[in-house]
């Protein structure tokens, strides 16, 4: 799941979302009644199960009984109980639904979604997420020697790491371009104590991903001329080589992007792109 949903799920499951009952416990002076229905204290179980903003949703056909059964009145563990019973997919959909319910409560959000609109939004969210997942794979274009622009909505991030063998220093170049080929941002760096060309490339790759994350780019295509690295980035297997840790860190960063792909380009094209 995207990081924002994971973080939300963790807070929900641990009972630490800022519902009114939790705020009061922390000494923050708010009313305790639910701002939507004013029927009971706004606890997590009220907000996500009993409140009218939530209860009708769980009665829809797409949900199994376990979502409405009232056994898990405990503030915590609602989701973990469900995760033992339900399949992973239904749990993910449930979690996204809770997330949408939570944002539907937002007072700034004056026009609240109806139950049907909530579920339509959840379905759309899941569809887009799955689409993004399925495109998270490498397209190896070994013959490509010319830089090509990414499709609309994507930024292409070219990285290159080159060793200056004499003094164990590597130079790193990262260039971010949009769909028109316009340079959005670029960065370069020098790292010492690097002796292996693949390490230089791995450092460049990691820098490229960290840089893109900091720029807040949501959809990226990472491109480099180190074919092995590009393959490693999408491989499920753990890399035990010298660059294993860098690859693992880069893989973790993939989750920061809504859409992610990696491509290989021949050296000449990459040199032209990164300058
Ligand atoms: Zn309520």
UniProtKB/TrEMBL annotation:
Residues 158-274 form the RNase H type-1 domain. It comes from Durio zibethinus. One of its GO terms (molecular function) is RNA-DNA hybrid ribonuclease activity. Pfam families: RVT_3 (PF13456), zf-RVT (PF13966). The gene is LOC111300197. This is Uncharacterized protein LOC111300197. Residues 1-58 form the Reverse transcriptase zinc-binding domain. CDD domains: RNase_H_like. InterPro entries: RNase_H-like_dom_plant (IPR044730), RNase_H-like_EbsB-rel (IPR052929), RNaseH-like_sf (IPR012337), RNaseH_domain (IPR002156), RNaseH_sf (IPR036397), RVT-Znf (IPR026960). It comes from the Eukaryota.
């Amino acid at each position: 799941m995207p990081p924002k949903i994971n973080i939300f799920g963790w807070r929900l499951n641990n009972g630490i979302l800022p519902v009114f009952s939790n705020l009061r416990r922390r000494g923050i002076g708010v009313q305790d009644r639910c701002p939507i229905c004013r029927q009971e204290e706004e606890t997590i179980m009220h907000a996500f199960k009993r409140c009218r903003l939530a209860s009708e949703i769980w009665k829809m056909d797409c949900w199994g009984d376990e979502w409405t059964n009232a056994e898990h009145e405990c503030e915590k563990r609602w989701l973990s109980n469900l995760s033992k019973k339900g399949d992973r997919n239904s749990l993910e959909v449930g979690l996204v639904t809770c997330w949408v319910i939570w944002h539907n409560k937002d007072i700034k959000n004056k026009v609240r979604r109806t139950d049907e609109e909530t579920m339509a939004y959840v379905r759309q969210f899941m569809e887009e997420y799955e689409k993004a997942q399925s495109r998270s794979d490498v397209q190896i274009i070994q013959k490509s020697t010319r830089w090509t622009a990414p499709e609309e909505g994507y930024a292409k991030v070219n990285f290159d790491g080159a060793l200056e063998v004499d003094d164990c220093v590597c130079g790193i170049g990262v260039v971010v371009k949009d769909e028109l080929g316009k340079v959005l941002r670029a960065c370069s760096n020098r790292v010492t104590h690097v002796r292996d060309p693949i390490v230089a490339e791995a450092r460049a790759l990691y820098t490229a991903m960290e840089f893109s994350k900091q720029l807040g780019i949501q959809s990226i295509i990472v491109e480099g001329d180190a074919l092995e690295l590009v393959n490693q980035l999408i491989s499920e297997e753990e890399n035990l080589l010298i660059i294993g840790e860098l690859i693992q860190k880069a893989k973790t960063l993939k989750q920061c992007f809504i859409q992610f792909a990696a491509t290989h380009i021949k050296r000449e094209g990459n040199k032209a792109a990164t300058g």
